[in-house]
Amino acid sequence: QFTEEKLGQAEKTELDAHFENLLARADCTKNWTEKILRQTEVLLQPNPSARVEEFLYEKLDRKVPSRVTNGELLAQYMTEAANDFGPGTPYGKTLIKVGETQRRLGAAEREFIHSASINFLTPLRNFLEGDWRTISKERRILQNRRLDLDACKARLKKAKAAEAKAAVTL
């Protein structure tokens, strides 16, 4: 039935226009959700190899090891440099102040990444891995049922045509 429809040799039962619109909206929602999810992951973790590592940890149901943010690393360097120059020197005091601020910024960045992952990315993943799979499964079932219906309609039409032909020849 599917092949005959594609070749234009069989009639296809059209679905309700409102339902077709819902299917189109569902496809659009899925596509945009995937794009937004990928781009947010890139924003939160610009390093592709780190993203792959996090993905593998996630798929293996293991805890992702925490990473030092760039701000925290810079703070660490500044503190070490301040200790090298001497905390009593003007440069050392400045490095300690700026290093402490960078440490707080790095901690805020880490908290933001964690919060965004839980509160933003998780619902998007849940939609794609849960709801979308259900939608796709139901769509396939509907398509198969429609093909079965069209095949039955075609057989009925052929049977009626054969019956009419037999009645004419008698």
TrEMBL record:
SUPFAM superfamilies: BAR/IMD domain-like. It is found in: Cytoplasm. It comes from Calyptomena viridis (Lesser green broadbill). Belongs to the endophilin family. PANTHER family: DREBRIN-LIKE PROTEIN-RELATED, SH3 DOMAIN-CONTAINING. GO terms for biological process: membrane organization. GO terms for cellular component: cytoplasm; membrane. Keywords: Coiled coil, Cytoplasm. This is SHLB2 protein. Its main location: cytoplasm. The keyword Lyase does not apply. Residues 4-170 form the BAR domain. PROSITE patterns: BAR.
